[in-house]
Design goal:
The chain has eight helices and 13 strands. It is an alpha+beta fold and 233 residues long. The chain has a single domain, classed as Metallo-beta-lactamase, Chain A. The longest helix is centred in the C-terminal third of the chain and has 12 residues, at 167-178. It starts with a strand and ends in a 15-residue tail after the last helix. Bound molecules: zinc ion (2 copies). The site of one zinc ion has 4 residues, from loops. The site of one zinc ion has 7 residues, from helix 2.
Amino acid sequence: MEFEILPVTRYAQNCSIVWCEKTSRAAVIDPGGDLSEILNFIELLELEPEVALITHGHFDHCGGAAQFAEMTGARIEGPHRGDEHVVARLEQMGERYGVPARTYVPARWLEHGDRIRFGEEELEVLHCPGHCQGHVAYFSRSRRQAFVGDILFRHTIGAWEHPDGNLPLLIHSIRSRLFTLGDDVGFVPGHGPTSTIGHERRENPFVGDEAFARWCARFPGSEDPALGHAPQA
Ligand SMILES: [Zn+2]
Ligand SMILES: [Zn+2]
């Protein structure tokens, strides 16, 4: 598996083009906009885009998905159905923030544990609510690489201060679903530089091991890995 990151839209959203070197079959994660750049890259490497994978319903991540699917014949999958109401508002939100966006109906709303295959590669779906209710991450277990959208960033975490956000749940998703993948796993966040799980466990001031120890001392029960919902702050 190879991948290339193309920052798209005025929000420099990291669209990742991921492909199987043996078959040239590709998945495009979060084609939020600037489709000409994405399509140029695909053409340059003679890739065959099979699927657009969406991490969550924000317009900078999926506003271009409908048009991308029309232009390439790729299907759209994701995110989790918890973001259906966000995807339904794509036009309005794009207009408000000055990014052309169109709503879509995915071929499949994804569930935790679903798999996506293209060529000889496979990505696993990790449901990680907290930034949005339906947010998912994509993980290549064989290549030790994750694509995590707006859940986790280098040295920070996703926004939660909006109606669909939930800070305890966001922290729980990161700790239980991303940090458990292994310290060696690299990840591409929705914006900004890449990092590794190990680096964030050591250095992340919001959700790293040290910060989390302080959080647990303040909100006992957070450390329970079986917790569906972290305690309300
Ligand atoms: Zn977002
Ligand atoms: Zn974003």
